[in-house]
Amino acid sequence: MRYLISRAAAALLFLCIFAGTSLAATDYDQLFRQSSDLMVQGDLEGSLKLLKQVPAPAPGDDGSAFVSSRMQAARIYSSQGTPEAAMEACREVLKLFPDNSEARNLLTALEKQQKPRWHTILADCLRFLPALAKGATMTLLLVFCTMLISPLGGLLIALGRISTFRPVSALCWFIIWFFRGTPLLLQLFFIYYGLPALGITLAPLTAAVIGLGLNYSAYLGEIIRGAIQSIDHGQMEAAKAIGMTYGQAMRRVIIPQTYKRLMPPIGNEFIALIKDTALVSTIAMVELMRSADQLFNTYFNITALVLAALIYLVLTTIFTFIFEKIEYRAGIYEQR
Amino acid sequence: MSSAKEPLLKLTGITKHFKNLTAVNGINLEVQPGEKLVIIGPSGSGKSTLLRSINLLEEIDDGTITFEGHQVGYVTRLGKRHLDKPHQICALRAEIGMVFQHFHLFPHMTVLGNVMEGPLTVQKKTREEARQTAVDMLAKVGLSDKRDVFPATLSGGQKQRVAIARALAMRPKLMLFDEPTSALDPELVGEVFDTIHSLADEGMTMLIVTHHMGFARELADRVIFMESGRFLAEGTPQEFFCKSQDNERIRGFLNRLL
């Protein structure tokens, strides 16, 4: 690949030089010829060195040799992937011959490829950031509300499922069956658009928190139940043997031992939650995803989406670290 | 033991079925205050089930349990037997200490926390009182220096001594030991036996299930041999372990162990 490029560049430059030499002052014919020979051999460095030997034009000189040499150098630099040096060569020409259109055009073309891209992206970022930050705040609000509700709901559902009282365990089984078995999107639609038909109208935020809270309670319920049942049965017996009630044994002995086991799956769920909040954009909530979508549709600019993706990544990364810390803390008693 | 004294624990006709197996089959037993009773027998003979039935970790199918002269654990409603109310059951368990084969210490609490837990949560004592009790009990089992470590750092023998301290902290009137040394390395058995011995010297009433015949002979006031859910023989250690043991089953069992 490199070989092909250098060959193509060499051929192109050779043509330019050919055209240039006929215009150049005769003193430099020899130098230009050597330079193009080196170029054909692939020695771009050597060629550039020769070209630089052409001095700035003396008074009375038309400067055509100087212009040709610098423009050739600029093309070589540009083909080598060092546009800064190419632009420098163009500016050198323009300093003495401000009207030289060739140098002007090349410089403009190079500048367009360079600085302005970062400029516009940065400007876009600054323009989009306030709206996205507002959206991200709403996303975080939803996440925190759900993080408060779902572990409590999950614990109740888990204890209900374990209960030997049939109606309670059946009810909890049903809740899990329903909320795990239907799409979250559908549940949100039902709560926001469906409940008004039954005379219950909810604000978008309320509907979103209820929907997310119920859905995640169902998932966490199963996770917590699994963790509780994974604790050695002997722990419950030992607690009972010193006279504890079922409730005391659960609160003091069993549930504290589940924390370490709960952290990895719950961390997973909460990271999924951060992304699942995007679904509430369908029930008239403006959160991070919706903000990004609005910006994208207004400006047709992909930067908004990239920025939103970065914000999601930052949030999930922070959560990952927090949960790793908590997991370590929760299991500290197991260390020998 | 004089029979005039009221027994601390009296079992009559205790029966427990598991699916199609009768683990305990109509056991009658009286335990006098201060008595040390050792139950031996092959595995699967129902020793552990009997022990667990006494503090209601196992719900029996028939029979009565009388503790300090009161019938406990079960009530009859409309001619059907039910487990008593939870707080009654908890109250009974609080008076009976139990030590398990696999210790079952609470791994998320320190050694002191384990021993404090009963007085604190069940007896609702203040933190200071519970702490004092726990400190005393740990001193008794010789583990005062291990107060603040987590159980994971202890040896098996130390764990079992903490478990004994945890049971003692409730000031029980009866101690049940369910194979307390079976999960221990041989060199750790001694320290646990010494602890149980010193407890016996203080006059604690104990029911011990064990496979260590030497220990049974040394400690027991009475030895019971159990097989297939029934008591096959009982007597003083002298009678039981004498060479002229005439019960062929027991002789065979003892010969395999000694």
UniProtKB/TrEMBL annotation, chain A:
Membrane topology: Multi-pass membrane protein
Upper classification of the organism: Bacteria, Pseudomonadati, Thermodesulfobacteriota, Desulfuromonadia, Geobacterales
Name used for this protein in its record: ABC transporter permease subunit
InterPro entries hit by this protein: AA_ABC_transptr_permease_3TM, ArtM/GltK/GlnP/TcyL/YhdX-like, MetI-like, MetI-like_sf, TPR-like_helical_dom_sf
Main location group: membrane
Chain segments annotated as transmembrane: 136-159, 171-192, 198-219, 302-323
Subcellular location: Cell inner membrane; Cell membrane
PROSITE patterns: ABC_TM1 (PS50928)
Organism, as annotated: Pelotalea chapellei
Signal peptide (from-to): 1-24
Keywords of the record: Amino-acid transport, Cell membrane, Membrane, Signal, Transmembrane, Transmembrane helix, Transport
Similarity section: Belongs to the binding-protein-dependent transport system permease family. HisMQ subfamily.
Domain named ABC transmembrane type-1: residues: 136-323
From TrEMBL, chain B:
Spans traversing the lipid bilayer: none
ABC transporter domain mapped to chain residues: 9-253
Similarity field: Belongs to the ABC transporter superfamily.
Stretches of the chain forming a coiled coil according to its record: none
Highest taxon of source: Bacteria
GO-annotated molecular function: ATP binding
Keywords: ATP-binding, Nucleotide-binding, Transport
Protein name: Amino acid ABC transporter ATP-binding protein
Gene3D superfamilies: P-loop containing nucleotide triphosphate hydrolases (3.40.50.300)
The UniProt record lists the keyword S-adenosyl-L-methionine: no
Signal peptide bounds: none
InterPro entries, alphabetized: AAA+_ATPase, ABC_ATPase_HisP-typ, ABC_transporter-like_ATP-bd, ABC_transporter-like_CS, MetN_ABC_transporter-like, P-loop_NTPase
